Amino acid sequence: MQVFWSKGYDATSLDDLCDATGLSRSSLYAAFGDKRSLMLQSLSRYVDNGSEKIAKRLATKAPFRAALADFLNDFIDAIVAGPGRRGCFIGNCAAEIPRHDREAMAQVRAALARNEGYFRAALDAAKSRGELSRKADTAALARFIASSIQGLRLVGKANPDRALLEDIAAVMLRCLDE
Amino acid sequence: MQVFWSKGYDATSLDDLCDATGLSRSSLYAAFGDKRSLMLQSLSRYVDNGSEKIAKRLATKAPFRAALADFLNDFIDAIVAGPGRRGCFIGNCAAEIPRHDREAMAQVRAALARNEGYFRAALDAAKSRGELSRKADTAALARFIASSIQGLRLVGKANPDRALLEDIAAVMLRCLDE
DNA sequence: TGAGTTCTGGACTAATAAGTCTAGAATAGG
DNA sequence: CCTATTCTAGACTTATTAGTCCAGAACTCA
């Protein structure tokens, strides 16, 4: 997963994967099938890990606005200080996956939808706590947040500049107030 | 440019490029240098075309809010109905380019900055026309719009669903009202 | 027209890719 | 301790890759 995330699908060779896993080719094929299949399993793992984190943090913290602010801040920290320029694995997949690979595209779509779902749930909870306007369209807001995070991480990959990313996050957060 | 945009860098072979240009290998190399160089020139061309379009449309139409709405609508049309699932070439590059390729990353960064600049100019003009709150931070808004468009196009690539994208665009537009 | 220059098709090279296969190591069960 | 099964290292195959090169076509200009 780390290798695919860092280098992308095409640029990752089987030798890279063998090095990273410590397995030989035959064991790798026996355990995971071919390269594409391993890629999809990696993405699946990434989504499982990441989504769980999102869900936990949004569910335990309140108010939602503060939880999201926290969340975005951590993203920015990771982008600026972390093992940089990897972007979001989901986003990288969305960009690189060949158009005709429907299964892979479906998995990316599902990953995005899953995150959107967690945001939606947190927004609904916040709305029922009275944190949001009664007219707030939580579905649309969730979609917006999921999409904007992709934008944030993509921009952050190309330009990991804290001030830039904080500007983006600040405007994002303002969208919650209607 | 079309081929790189559709297939990505690694998945594009020189044979693809020869087919697309109608040139033979030697002519291709004579005209554009090696593959990477041609890729960068393609990106440059994409940005020149695209940015000009952005600038023109934002400059001639007013109010800004309507111009942006129009703009987003066209994006959505293109994503939903167009020769689908190509995403934004800039975004694709940001995702696929190897991290260590500083020159390429710088070009992507410049491309994003250029778009951001056009939004900024249009926002400033709108502000001076009194369309925006006097406190509006046009720099931050421009950064946000540039980033969100990347998000929109990425999500649209994975899931070209009009309702989804219109939700995202609607929330984006609301960020202009403070 | 004709010599000189530039351009171009496509064969060629060398490297690297994914995926397969076999010989032998490790493990398990009795 | 010995046989039978499973697993693994790494050589191997076949295909494809980016990039080179040269013979000959096309063009230029006197």
Rg over alpha carbons of chain A? 18 Å
Number of strands of chain A: 0
CATH architecture annotation name of chain A: Orthogonal Bundle
> Structural class given helices, strands, pairing of chain A?
mainly alpha
**Greatest interface and its participating residue counts:** A-B, 48 and 48 residues
Topology, please?
The structure is a homodimer of 178-residue chains.
Chain A: H1 2-7, H2 14-21, H3 25-32, H4 35-60, H5 64-81, H6 89-96, H7 102-128, H8 138-158, H9 162-174
Helix pairs in contact in A: 4-7, 5-8, 5-9, 6-7, 7-8, 8-9
The structure holds a DNA duplex (30 and 30 nucleotides).
Descriptive account of the structure:
Two copies of one chain form a homodimer. Chain A is mostly helical. Chain A has one domain: Orthogonal Bundle (Tetracycline Repressor, domain 2). The first copy, chain A, is 76% helix and 0% strand. Chain A has helices at residues 2-7, 14-21, 25-32, 35-60, 64-81, 89-96, 102-128, 138-158, 162-174. In chain A, α4 (35-60) packs parallel to α7 (102-128), α5 packs parallel to α8 (138-158) and α8 packs antiparallel against α9 (162-174). The first copy, chain A, is elongated and about 55 Å long. The mean pLDDT of chain A is 94. Chains A and B meet through α6, α7, α8 and α9 of A and α6, α7, α8 and α9 of B. The structure holds a DNA duplex (30 and 30 nucleotides).
